[in-house]
Design brief:
With about 625 residues, the protein is of the alpha/beta class. Helices cover about 30% and strands about 25% of the residues. The strands form nine sheets. An eight-stranded mixed β-sheet has the order 12-11-8-6-7-14-15-25, with helices on both faces. The chain has a seven-stranded mixed β-sheet with strand order 5-4-17-16-18-19-20, with helices on both faces. It has a four-stranded antiparallel β-sheet with strand order 23-24-26-27, with no helix packed on it. The structure holds adenosine monophosphate (AMP).
Length: about 625
């Protein structure tokens, strides 16, 4: 690991010269005069004085050399469509969209909320916002109306962009009624909604005076040339909401210049993606992986990005590998859950297609168990690189960096600290550094490197109190993940230190689910815990105390009540947060000081020992959990 160790050391010890070199990878309209302003810890401003633009770096910059190269290939196995946009065509579409957005009065710094399925217009709208210097806030299409409304109220967008519907596994997900409901619930709804009408929702009825038709509006601006708005490097590029321990999601705010540099640099050193090659990231634009490695990263690097709408097993489990073969994909990025889904299918699908173009498969978002890592590694016969990051960081924290040094994979580990990150594995008790093979909390000594969140949208204080207050008296960014490092410097992630769970790579706060369950009128109190799931990694389980016990006495009533509670979660948060089961009890296990014994509940649900129970207030509460789960 010699070459990489030196590379990493230089990124910390000689920060200024290191990042000056990396910053050459992007176009600066005006060069920066200072690499880092860290005069107000933990707030870091990268590339001060520099002016740039994400859209220019992703598209315009490439026009001369690769105008006719595919920039984005949209493949939908839901509608059986394939459509290629060259860099020049993408430029035209983004200009049209930017003109439409600008015509709605959106100017630099204004927010635009996107609630979109995986259609090219989602990427086009993101890039159009970036072109104008508007701040996009993409809300994952699986979130419910109430979640969308709370994000509207936090970001106060001037415009909302959506589609009539999305498709999943052949089933339509109607976005328009969800948006109508979100607009009704929001205290600060935008005036207009721009809608891509895919013709899926046959009952589609625009709201007069509010709804605008995307096709019609872009037609009006067919020849538009919208000049790039040059932004200060630290100007916000986007907001992306993520869950934590409280019920209220935080708006992760990203800058412009630092983000562009981090992505460009990672495309080279981590992903080894070369201009002209193709990258296939199987995520969704609603997640951070979609922002960084479906849209901005590959385009900044002059690559072709595959924009896929569909499931990994439809029409059959070979579809992703067929895409790799057809489009000569060199870099692929997916999730452990997707691999666990594929693992259940016929392994012949893995060898049916010519995968010779593929250099690496990257996986992230949730723990990659060793057997799955080993299976996919062997099945593909290519290095499968697990890497670890968070919405907050925007790019990897732990990874191998095959662009610097050949990757030596250790099953079950996402590798070693990525350059730019001064990572420390600390003992929880006294914040001293854990030794080899000793468990600790994974923390980052600030300043956070370029690309990472710069603050919580509209709430600097929350940025500090949430992320930098885990170790009193010490200004350290906590990832809220446990880790352990072996003698070779490889880190293994052991799970969260807080009450956040991870369902199929999506982070969900148990508090959020608890609040959604409590939206049901008969629920007095509830505990939600994450339990191990063979495919999705974790699934939420709810234990609820009802107000009117008569309603859960009979088996049929219990089933009805459970159905209603699950529907309440769907309404508040969306199906992705839906508990696997809701069990009804009369009491929840708590300490004498009233703290929920979540870890004991979780242990019982996973068939483990519930641990130290000396502080429990009423042991019969745990007996009820056991009875509900049918465990001894
Ligand atoms: P999110 O911001 O939703 O992507 O969630 C980030 C969290 O997912 C991290 O704090 C980890 O708990 C988990 N995570 C992400 N990548 C990995 C990985 N490669 N291995 C283990 N856990 C991961």
């Amino acid at each position: 690991m010699g070459a990489y160790t030196d590379f990493h050391r230089r990124s910390i010890a000689d920060r200024e010269s290191f990042w000056t070199d990396e910053a050459r990878r992007i176009h600066w309209h005006r060069p920066f005069s200072q690499v880092l302003d860290y005069s107000k810890p933990p707030f870091a401003k990268w590339f001060v004085g520099g002016q740039t633009n994400l859209c220019h770096n992703a598209i315009d910059r490439h026009l001369a050399a690769r105008g006719d190269q595919p920039a984005l290939v949209y493949i939908s196995t839901e509608t059986n469509t394939e459509k290629t946009y060259t860099y020049r065509e993408l430029h035209t579409e983004v200009n049209r969209c930017a003109a439409v957005i600008a015509a709605q009065g959106v100017v630099r710094g204004d927010r635009v909320l996107l609630y979109m399925p995986m259609i090219p217009e989602a990427a086009i709208a993101m890039l159009a916002c970036a072109r104008l210097g508007a701040v996009h806030s993409v809300v994952f299409g699986g979130f419910a109306a109430a979640s969308c409304a709370s994000r509207i109220d936090d970001a106060k967008p001037k415009l909302l962009i959506t589609a009539d519907a999305g498709l999943r596994g052949g089933k339509a997900i109607h976005y328009k009624p969800l948006v109508d409901e979100a607009m009704r619930l929001a205290k600060h709804p935008p005036k207009n909604v721009l809608i891509v009408n895919r013709g899926i929702d046959k009952d589609f009825k625009p709201v007069p005076g509010r709804d605008l038709d995307y096709a019609e509006e872009t037609r009006k601006h067919a020849d538009a040339q919208v000049p790039v708005t040059w932004l200060e490097s630290s100007d916000p590029s986007y907001i992306l909401y993520t869950s934590g321990t409280t019920g209220k999601p935080k708006g992760v705010q990203r800058d412009t210049g630092g983000y562009a540099v981090a992505l460009a640099s990672s495309m080279e050193h981590i992903y080894c993606g070369k201009p002209g090659e193709t990258m296939f990231t199987t995520s969704d634009v609603g997640w951070v992986v979609g922002h960084s490695y479906i849209v901005y990263g590959p385009l900044i690097q002059g690559m072709t990005t595959i924009f896929y709408e569909g499931l990994p097993i439809r029409p059959d489990a070979g579809i992703w590998w067929k895409i790799v073969a057809d489009h000569k994909v060199s870099v692929m990025f997916s999730s452990p859950t997707a691999v666990r889904v594929l693992k259940k299918q016929d392994p012949a699908y893995m060898t049916k297609y010519d995968l010779s173009s593929l250099k690496h498969l990257f996986l992230a978002g949730e723990p990659l168990d060793e057997p799955t890592h080993r299976w996919i590694h062997d099945a593909l016969g290519k290095p499968v690189i697990d890497h670890y990051w968070q919405t907050e960081t925007g790019w990897p924290i732990l990874s191998l960096a095959p662009g610097i040094e050949p990757a030596k994979v250790k099953y079950g580990s996402p590798g070693y600290p990525v350059y730019g990150y001064d990572l420390k594995l600390l003992r929880e008790t006294d914040a001293t550094e854990a030794g080899p093979d000793e468990k600790g909390v994974l923390t980052i000594a600030p300043p956070l490197p370029p690309g990472c969140m710069t603050t919580v949208w509209g709430d600097d204080e929350r940025f500090v109190s949430t992320y930098f207050s885990d170790f009193p008296g010490k200004l350290l960014y906590s990832t809220f993940d446990w880790g352990v490092r072996d003698k070779d410097g490889y880190t293994f992630i052991l799970g969260r230190t807080d009450d956040v769970i991870n369902v199929a790579g999506h982070r969900i706060g148990t508090r959020e689910i608890e609040e959604a369950v409590q939206a049901h009128s008969n629920i007095a109190e509830v505990a939600v815990v994450g339990v191990a799931d063979p495919v999705k990694g974790q699934m939420p389980l709810a234990f609820a105390v009802v107000k009117d016990a008569k309603k859960v006495e009979a088996e049929a009533d219990r089933a009805q009540q459970e159905k209603e509670v699950l529907a309440a979660v769907d309404r508040q948060l969306g199906a992705i947060a839906r508990p696997k089961r809701v069990y009804f009890v009369t009491l929840l296990p708590k300490t004498r000081s009233g703290k929920l014994l979540r870890r004991s509940i979780q242990a019982l649900a996973e068939g483990r020992d519930p641990g130290d129970l000396t502080t429990i207030e009423d042991p019969t509460a745990l007996a009820q959990i056991r009875a509900a789960l049918g465990v001894k």
